[in-house]
Amino acid sequence: MPRKFTYDLLRLFRDSYRDTTNLTSNGSPVHRLIEQTSLSKACEIQQKGRGHSIDYWLWADLIAPESQRLLKNVIRVEQQEEADIFYVPFFTTISYFLLEKQECKALYREALKWVTDQPAWQRSEGRDHVIPVHHPWSFKSVRRYKPGQVYLEKDVILPYVPNVDLCDYKCVSETQSKRSTLLFFRGRLKRNAGGKIRSKLVTELQSIEDIIIEEGSAGAKGKVAAQTGMRKSLFCLNPAGDTPSSARLFDAIVSGCIPVIISDELELPFEGILDYSKIALFVSSTDAVQPGWLVKYLRGIDAQRVREMQSNLLKYSRHFLYSSPAQPLGPEDLTWRMFCSLCKCWDFRDTVIFAITVYPFHARNADCWQAGEHQVAYSAVAARGQRIKKRMHISRIAVALLYLSLA
């Protein structure tokens, strides 16, 4: 794509980083997009800090020199004709938060026109294109320009990038005996939509001695407070927010704090690959707000099960840590493997545009690939209103970045 949709937006973020770190505090992803990114003269990304944007990490993996890439199930190709799918590397959230409203909308329309004018799009009407939409406001003004664009059986859900540091083997060993808090939550205590349950949980839990429920804050101090609290707790409360999921779930996982998920509509990343019952507890909203029910339930979990789940959290953390270079069985790898399965499952004449989202309120992953030496995919797909399961061997897929004009 032209530079204005990729490199120029990264430069804008870098140049305005200090001024916008807390521009929209308490929930905005601005301060968690791409920290301290620099651009070399060759216009290659050199990542110095930690990235907090899913579209950035996938793009960074694809543009890395092939000799440095560790993932081999997806390859980048230069010619559109060689591609199985097309990844659209447009940083929609950066533009939303850092440009004026009308300027942002104009850039969205321009990006959309550029993409839809390409021969690759016109051949398939976008059915084999991957568009990263990782925030409910990203690309909002043009996102639903085509009926049926969001289709629940083929959209892929990805995890947020954790906002706290990994609690590794040494950390887990040191903190295990210090986890004196039964249940911890730090975040916005009042939310809209499905998040209204938070205020009910606050009323029910806030006065209990070994439970910590507190209002969260953005920035470095907020991160330290959340990280410290999670590392001192056995369980971390994960109620719905404005959407069924939040970054807090993945913060808990990498902190060794067993997530207690209270969200009746939640679809989780890589559900066909990962068994979340080994690392998290699922509680219905109805049960959670019953007086005394949740506390009694948590206190009734035996110590052996807690230790097993803590051990599993340590093993599962790798699946939620974005990195450069992208690691085998990391989130980038699992994402590409899911697309491998979807490419073989779907008849592109019948389906629509792939979308990547970390806000699962409008997406459902139907891929059922399970990790293993033989990489056998079990994919549940919808075809003409019926559920069909197919068994297949995954092969590499070729991805063409819509990246034809750098001028």
Automatic annotation (TrEMBL):
InterPro entries: Exostosin (IPR004263), Exostosin_GT47 (IPR040911). GO terms for cellular component: Golgi membrane. Residues 1-298 form the Exostosin GT47 domain. Belongs to the glycosyltransferase 47 family. It holds the Pfam family Exostosin_GT47. This is Multiple exostoses-1-like protein. It comes from Aegilops tauschii (Tausch's goatgrass). It is found in: Golgi apparatus membrane. Keywords: Glycosyltransferase, Golgi apparatus, Signal-anchor, Transferase, Transmembrane. GO terms for molecular function: glycosyltransferase activity. It is a single-pass type II membrane protein.
